[in-house]
Specification:
Number of strands of chain A: 2
Helix content of chain A: 55-70%
Oligomer: homodimer
Distance between the termini of chain A: 57 Å
Structural class of chain A: mainly alpha
Largest interface: A-B, 97 and 96 residues
Order of helices and strands of chain A: HHEEHHHHHHH
Shape of chain A: elongated
């Protein structure tokens, strides 16, 4: 199909599609003439995926490109897949800015706590310092998030991750796609479920 | 203390503090002369909270103001507190843009599924349509998130929400603060824990 048909099928304006092509999140079509190209079903699916990642997923186009690249590189193990997904996601979009305030600089609290939980994570994983900063922000806001409460969250989140992993397909390429895209889109689902679960529990306890 | 001392104490520039005053996220100090005002410990704490919400929490200043207003209005019940927190958070910052694509318009799937789970949530809660849109995005990306997998997530997230609620103080004002600010800052903690838990499970299963 021509780019105008791709626009009609996906309900995305031609100008936006051209922007996606320039930004490298949409592969070029097959050249027909010097000025027009042919697009197929894989382009329709890619456009829908980009819309989902930038819309519901809330990613910038730059992070979207990194995430899509991560799904295309060959991987051999599930641990490798997880690492690639995390590196792609912990880019500029997901690395929070703790501000100029000195109170939120990383300590080693998260690292020590993770070791105590017996979690096997890469010691240089940027998520560890991120967790430390986020935990420090909770403390600065006086939310009373101590090691015990974190451990209770960790047990609940392990169940979430177990559901995540149970759905990962056996072939490495499918696995990457599932993990990277599933992580972004399901973050939003889980955030909303948390809001609704809080409400349900508050109401059913007689609030 | 003068505004210059508030800046030194919080490590936030005077220009930023003046911006916070103009945007209504920092209450005025007590007037001393026509051009200077006096700030106290409550201002120090408020500045740190604003930094945490805009930094780790990733909120815009407009959403931060709404969230802070929600913590200040008087509330009587925990269900009321939850509702206020959700309305403040599901503002422009948290309502995702599904894009122009027609594929992601809300259906009634999330609503029907929630009823099946027996969750007591307000039928007009914007989080329900949001969940529907996010679920549709997962389906559009072919992630295989069916009712059964959602139910497994729901069970895990109920445990998260139970930890949230166990930490809510008895006095309504403290409860609002804990819920609203805890929801924002702990979203980030839980997102990072999910990444680390995925990695831990993938590695400990031998990848």
């Amino acid at each position: 199909m021509r780019i105008s048909e791709l626009a009609a099928t996906t309900d995305v304006p031609v100008a936006t599609l051209k922007y996606y092509l320039r930004e490298g999140v949409l592969p070029s079509g097959q050249a027909r003439t010097r000025t027009s190209a042919d697009y197929g079903q894989e382009h329709v699916e890619r456009v829908r995926l980009v819309r989902a990642l930038t819309g519901v997923g809330g990613l910038s186009l730059a992070t979207t490109r990194r995430v899509l690249e991560a799904t295309e590189a060959p991987r051999t193990s599930r641990a490798d897949v997880m690492g690639a997904a995390q590196r792609a996601l912990l880019g500029e979009e997901y690395v929070s800015d703790p501000g100029e305030g000195g109170a939120l600089r990383p300590t080693n609290r998260a690292r020590a706590w993770l070791a105590e939980q017996g979690w096997q994570v890469h010691p240089a994983d940027p998520a560890i310092d991120e967790l430390d900063t986020a935990w420090a922000a909770c403390e600065a806001a006086d939310l009373g998030v101590d090691e015990e409460r974190m451990a209770a969250y960790a047990q609940a989140v392990l169940r979430v991750a177990a559901v995540d992993l149970a759905s990962v397909p056996a072939d490495p390429q499918g696995a990457v796609r599932q993990v990277v895209i599933g992580t972004v889109l399901l973050d939003r689902v889980l955030l909303l479920l948390r809001r609704l679960a809080q409400q349900h529990l508050a109401v059913s306890e007689g609030g």
